[in-house]
Specification:
The complex is a heterodimer of chains A (120) and B (109). By secondary structure, chain A is mostly beta strands. Chain A is built from no helices and eleven strands. In chain A, strands 2, 4, 5, 6, 9, 10 and 11 form a seven-stranded mixed beta sheet that branches. In chain A, strands 1-3-8-7 form a four-stranded antiparallel beta sheet, with no helix packed on it. Chain B contains no helices and eleven strands. In chain B, the strands form two sheets. In chain B, strands 2, 4, 5, 6, 9, 10 and 11 form a seven-stranded mixed beta sheet that branches. A four-stranded antiparallel beta sheet of chain B has the order 1-3-8-7, with no helix packed on it. The chains are: A mainly beta (120), B mainly beta (109).
Chain lengths: 120, 109
């Protein structure tokens, strides 16, 4: 049974950089896209982007200028880096898995999420 | 980006009642690739339905999905106490970015 666990800071100051790690326990094969999403009361659920095992990425245009998603298959970890944070980036950040097959690109496994607050 | 609009915003029900949740998309979704998720307080979303009408593993048959094109529905045939939660639809068709509706809260009347 695959499990995802996010880790990182709970508090980030405005204009600084957020770095969050998702550690995968279980199947970390090349059959999946590894995604980052976030959820806030104001914006709801938002898909940020994904990384494939090869390092190929795809981002939501709303985040593309500020986000980098990367992967380390040797560590079974996926990373999110977001720069120039503002208060509106306060949210719970989730990693989630999606299969590569088009019909199965839904998010079938989620981490518990990490609440990130942007405040001075 | 495909915009998903869910209605109603809140549904007040008694246990045992049925519920119909709507999700309308701003354009047709490729091959009706719509998923539904349930989110209980303090938890991550949980997959219920994929490809409009297919239940995910372990999901009881009181949950069903239907629809096509731009109109999709999640039906709960008899609401159980554990079903009181927020429900989201999501499109994962060929059009990126993948996007979600704003959610329907099912609450106890």
């Amino acid at each position: 049974q695959v499990q995802l666990q996010e880790s990182g800071p709970g508090l980030v100051r405005p204009s600084e950089t957020l770095s969050v790690t998702c550690t995968v326990s279980g199947d970390f094969s090349g059959s999946y896209y590894w995604n980052w999403l976030r959820q806030s009361p104001e914006k709801g659920l938002e898909w940020i982007g994904y990384v494939f095992s090869t390092g190929t990425t795809h981002y939501n245009p709303s985040f593309e200028s500020r986000v980098t998603i990367s992967i380390d298959t040797s560590k079974s970890q996926v990373y999110l880096k977001m720069i120039s944070l503002i208060a509106a980036d306060t949210a719970t950040y989730y990693c989630a898995r999606a299969k590569v097959t088009p019909r199965e690109r839904y998010f079938d496994v989620w981490g518990h999420g990490i609440l990130v607050t942007v405040s001075s | 980006e495909i915009v998903l609009t869910q209605s109603p915003g809140t549904l007040s029900l008694s246990p045992g009642e049925g519920a119909t949740l709507s999700c309308k998309t701003s354009q047709s979704v490729f091959r009706d690739y719509i998923a539904w998720y349930q989110q209980r307080p303090g938890q991550a979303p949980r997959l219920l339905i994929y490809a409009t009408s297919n239940r995910a593993a372990g999901i009881p048959d009181r949950f069903s999905g239907s629809g096509s094109g731009t109109d999709f529905t999640l039906t709960l045939s008899r609401v159980e106490p554990e079903d009181f939660a927020v429900y989201y639809c999501q499109q994962y068709g060929g059009s990126l970015p993948w996007s979600f509706g704003q959610g329907t809260k099912v609450e106890i009347k």
